[in-house]
Amino acid sequence: MVKQTIQIFARVKPTVRKQQQGIYSIDEDEKLTHSLEIVLPRDLADGFVNNKRESYKFKFQRIFDQEAKQEIIFEIIAKPVAESTLAGYNGTIFAYGQTGSGKTFTITGGAERYSDRGIIPRTLSYIFEQLQKDSSKIYTTHISYLEIYNECGYDLLDPRHEASKLEDLPKVTILEDPDQNIHLKNLSLHQATTEEEALNLLFLGDTNRMIAETPMNQASTRSHCIFTVHLSSKEPGSATVRHVKLHLVDLAGSERVSKTGVGGLLLTEAKYINLSLHYLEQVIIALSEKHRTHIPYRNSMMTSVLRDSLGGNCMTTMIATLSLEKRNIDESISTCRFAQRVALIKNEAILNEEIDPRLMIVRLQKEIEDLKAELAMATGEQRTEALTEAELLQLEKLIASYLEDQDPESRLEVGADMRKIHHCFHHFKKLLNDKKTLENTVSSESTRQACQEPLRDEEYTKLLGLLKQRDNEINILVNMS
Ligand code: ADP
Ligand code: MG
């Protein structure tokens, strides 16, 4: 078991205008923790954030400034999570921040340049590379891609997505089993045997990601997207299997409802986002308080789906994406505050191993057979009913492969069943007798041939002639070559 608090990282999005400098600074202390200081510009300080304070300081595991490339984000943040997934632990990486702060850029990446690939494609590439290197296990990889919008779940990999409206698709719903494990109904799992297949699924899901025109931003602003890699592994011959999940999560924009400022449908959407992120916040607060026993996971679909990632069996990492421009200071401060809460949550990740029931049944059946035989031997109580056709066939196959086996150490294992042992002896006797008869006929045959009269003269000359002719032919061929 690995006990670990949720790791928090921050990434500052490049600003368009250079004069925004001076709003923040990044420091590193002796313990290598980074801290971000946000300094309020004077005109903002008297008013809407908090007029008593002029600067705020937040600690993070590490802070990536504007120039940080996708490569380093993967190396420092995502690679360790992917490594623990391969080692058998669940993992989650989620990006949290206001719209436009770089969540999608960080999780999925930009489409323009290859070097802009984000965490998902780089993680897939890394995982498949590692799986290929490891021939000691049999791996299977499946992908699912879930979108949560207005508290409803949609399968982004549903093939009907393109053909029908979102509302017409079957909704993904949550089922809870008696052990309180969450199962998602109507969420399809797609096997991916190569990196390319997995990338195609990512692309398909992103294409299906809902687009609704709004004055503020794309629709992805108001929905949460959870890309999940389901990895199973098993050693050949072993009945133990590992099932691990890696969630890569692009959350909805964390901005407050007042900013949207649009009526009708948009306001409902914005309210919903706030509602589901509000429930996320409540879960985080409950988890970070020591003596809380009830954690309100069930209040929203997102917190139910991510229950294990938050305070459960998972190694979880949060990336706070910040857009540190003057007009976004208040949102950035609330993103950092949220991150500080998240950093208090302790998770306990366990190795996700279980026994494959089918393999276990085969193993147990064999054990029962062996025990029955041993018992019969010990009690002296022998079974009297005749061996069945199938048993006899099985036994003869065993004898055949035993006789063929050149290894002098090989053994004929028929268990402690006297019926089978007798049958083996009987079979050996038969084989021995058959062999003797065969030898007798062969020797009498050769005696008979030896007694045949010698070749007649004319036959002898004929053969000699033939021999000469062949000899000549060979000589000609030798000369030619
Ligand atoms: P979000 O998903 O949080 O709403 P996006 O990831 O869509 O934000 O980012 C908004 C815009 O900023 C996009 O055009 C994106 O390409 C760009 N962007 C975000 N972060 C970076 C970065 N670190 N480097 C370069 N461009 C970025
Ligand atoms: Mg986005």
TrEMBL record:
Instruction: Report the residue ranges that make up the Kinesin motor domain in this protein.
Output: 5-345
Q: What is this protein called?
A: Kinesin motor domain-containing protein
Quote the SMART domains the UniProt record gives: KISc
In terms of InterPro entries, this protein maps to: Kinesin-like_fam, Kinesin_motor_dom, Kinesin_motor_dom_sf, P-loop_NTPase
The answer on whether this UniProt entry bears the keyword Ribosomal protein reads no
Cite a GO CC annotation.
Answer: cytoskeleton
Q: Which gene encodes it?
A: Kif6
| Family, as annotated | Belongs to the TRAFAC class myosin-kinesin ATPase superfamily. Kinesin family.
User: What organism is recorded for this protein?
Assistant: Mus musculus (Mouse)
**What Pfam families does the record tag this protein with?**
Kinesin
Q: Name one GO biological process term.
A: microtubule-based movement
The Swiss-Prot or TrEMBL record annotates one GO molecular function as: ATP binding
Which keywords belong to this entry?
ATP-binding, Cytoplasm, Cytoskeleton, Motor protein, Nucleotide-binding
